[in-house]
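Input record (one chain):
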Amino acid sequence: MKILVYKWKAYNYMDILEAFLNLGYEYITVEQDLECYDEDPTFEAKLAKLVMKNACDMIFTVNYFALITTVCTRLKIPYVVWTCDSPLISMYHQNVFLPCNYFFTFDQTNYLEFKGMGVEHIWYLPLGVNTKRLDYLLDHCGDLAAYENEISFVGSLYERNSYDSLRPRLPGYLQGYFDAAIWAQQCVNGGNILEEMLTVDVLEQLQQHFKLEKSKGSFSDLGLIFSTTVLGFKTAAEQRQRALIELSKQYPVTIYSNSNTSSLLRVRYGGSLDYWSEMPKVFRASKINLNFTIPNIKSGLPLRIWDVLGCGGFLLTNFQAEIPSYFKHKEDLVCFESIEELVELAGYYLKHEEERRRIAENGYRKVCSFHTCEQRVGKMMGIVERILADI
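The corresponding structure, as predicted from the sequence alone:
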């Protein structure tokens, strides 16, 4: 089978492409920035030409692009999608119901939602990690002293969120209501309540101040868009800043980010990192690695969890509903359910080195055995090929 892969800036493409090769699949890639994911006649013609010229049997992407469904429907070939973001706004499009699509979503809540809508070909498939690549890098990288930290966080502070610019234009009641919703969400671990808090009355008032822009084929609504792109990002911003500030009052903390970190007075700024060559070194060399899952991801495990464990790093993460399906708390990783508990756990594991090392080793062994990117891609392609064989 030969695969046409449309590449964009998703971090896990390199590992997926390596898995394709290791499993015996050929592929070619195409890269192009898109202004619109729903339709682009010029790019659609380019894709169709590439498929026919190279005799490709399917198109694959990380995340969903409705215009590729249009191409695959016309050419009568499958379009295989593996998601790494949730909710994926581009999936709320009428093209998702066409039979050429084969969706693999990393968030089980997202899977159940679209399965309930009637999407024919959709499966739950968590993300994974290329432990062989990471092992090779870390075994040949030399001294890691420059990347050693007591506690490290790699990621965005979401300080440029749209809520901050929108809030002054809202009436007092909505300002207070949304502030309360953001605070309440920070008190909930392993679940998302933001969309539920956008009642009909609140949405009717919000429509006067927030313009919903979507394509003609989209069936996303105001509640979904506002709860994720506005409230979700603001919640993540507040949670991350509060957690890092509280930790830094008692322990040395380093942040690696492209964000403006000037508000984190006690937190050391380590600069930005290259995902491929530097980030794994931080994960391996830090005593404690932090993960804060953005609340938009309702139940799934973000790529950061897999990356830290795949590097043999100790992970301290917020609780997510799907974690118990794959890992044991305080055996493979450690979960916190409040900032107060985060601070307490960080202090404990900084003092208990042997226990911390044992947990990191267990997590690493588990992902090596059961959760590699190659295993995930093999499962995905096995499902697609079985269905195609029956058509």
